[in-house]
Write a structure and sequence with these properties.
Helix content is 26%, strand content 22%. It is of the alpha+beta class and 293 residues long. It folds into two domains: 9-75, no CATH class; 92-290, Protocatechuate 3,4-Dioxygenase, subunit A (Sandwich). The strands form four sheets. A five-stranded mixed beta sheet has the order 3-2-7-8-9, with no helix packed on it. Strands 4-1-13-10 form a four-stranded mixed beta sheet, with no helix packed on it. Bound molecules: benzoic acid and fe (iii) ion.
């Protein structure tokens, strides 16, 4: 087969991959070719535009290392990460909704005791976070692992300023107590722009978009027999809730961070300044029997 033109090339490529032995590889390859060719037919790129596209993807790859993952940022900002998340995480009644993981999760977060202050001495408004972890039927889950991480008062994560602050801060791993509850102190996070000094930032600018995420606290919660929950809780009233650059906001994940005057806080601690209090009760869904290994 030869002499392909605009009308025959797609079928020729599809025919060439029809023999893939793994049916899933074949299905994915076929869909990729069909959609990619349809995209090119619709856009009708000039040769120069095509070269720009190749260069954009090349620079995106060159920007990736163990600290920066520009391809995930590209997926996030094009709404693909949230689409994959939606497909894979239907939410039954009582289960907490999911959202993007983001690039600032650290596997080896310090293990802390319920009640600890995890701010690492960072400046900001004191924040008490209280919460519970239960099954969707309301049964409390003791000993669940709760990873938390969030930005500082200026919108930076610890890992973005290790030179300055020297150690991890505003992140920790807790275990829920016998009642499935946990609490900790930190500082109230601020909204922040995603890293936008690379190809993704160039794309956002060209598309007339801002790079901001509304302020939030990340949670990753695991318990044996339950699906791992990856989510955030957003600060109610944040001006970016309706234009999150990565499309991650869901109403059920927005909570008021309530301001209290100096005095006794909900955990019994006495403070001499005002503080904010966030409470969130998380629901985990069981791993379907068929999915358990
Ligand atoms: C984050 O919330 O940490 C995040 C998520 C997606 C892209 C960049 C940052
Ligand atoms: Fe974040």
């Amino acid at each position: 087969m030869r002499n392909f033109d605009e009308n025959t090339i797609t079928d020729a490529v599809l025919a060439r991959i029809a023999g893939a032995s793994d049916p899933r590889v074949r299905q994915i390859s076929e869909a990729l070719v069909r959609h990619l060719h349809a995209f090119v037919r619709e856009v009708r790129p000039t040769q120069k535009e095509w070269e720009y596209g190749i260069d954009f993807l090349t620079r995106t790859g060159h920007m990736c290392d163990d600290k920066r993952q520009e391809f995930i940022l590209l997926s996030d900002t094009l709404g693909v990460s949230m689409l994959v998340d939606a497909i894979n995480h239907p939410v039954p009644e009582g289960a907490t909704e999911t959202t993007v993981l983001g690039p600032f999760f650290v596997q080896a977060a310090p293990e802390r005791q319920v009640g600890d202050d995890i701010s690492g001495g960072m400046e900001g408004d004191p924040l008490l976070v209280t919460g519970s972890v239960s099954a969707v039927d309301g049964r409390p889950l003791a000993d669940a692992v709760v990873d938390v991480w969030h930005s500082d008062d200026n919108g930076y994560y610890d890992v973005q300023q290790l030179d300055k602050i020297g150690d991890l801060a505003m992140r920790a791993r807790f275990r829920t107590n016998a009642d499935g509850r946990f609490h900790f102190w930190s500082i109230k996070p601020a909204a922040y722009p995603i890293p936008h000094n690379g190809p993704v930032g160039e794309m956002l600018e060209a598309q007339g978009r801002h790079p901001w995420r509304p302020a939030h606290v990340h949670f990753m919660i695991s318990a044996p027999g339950f699906e791992q929950l990856v989510t955030h809780v957003f600060v109610d009233g944040d001006k970016y809730l309706d234009s999150d650059v990565v499309f991650g906001v869901k109403d059920s994940l927005v909570r008021e961070f309530v301001r209290y005057p100096a005095g006794r806080a909900a955990d019994g601690r006495v403070t001499n300044t005002s503080h904010f209090h966030l409470n969130y009760d998380f629901g985990l869904k069981r791993i379907a029997a068929a999915k358990q290994e």
